[in-house]
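Why does residue order matter? Because the sequence determines the fold. Keep that principle in mind as you read this record.
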Amino acid sequence: METLPVADSVTALTAETDIVESDEKSKSDRLAEGVSILTQLRDGGVRKNSLGFLLLKREITTWVDKGVKWEGSIPFQEYGREAIVWLPSHGKKAATLHFKVVKESISNRTAL
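Structure:
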């Protein structure tokens, strides 16, 4: 299991884009926010070919293409984490990902 530096139990990633005051988010805004979140994960040490990253990328791609809001969690088991994801359809909210440490993974690592 790979480990990432952990400052606390949750790391929040929010898309670094200007939020537009409209009812619906444009496809270009969704794309920019999705790329921002994926880039932040890669910069944080997550491999782009890990299962969790690929599952997240699939959800973001669907969100960018269809514009339908999506909320859910994606396991990143090899990192002992879980991504809690919010991909909104409205322009007033930014896409957000909380990269949460999974407690049982911590106890398993300390037992080794």
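Helices lie at 27-43, 51-66, 103-111.
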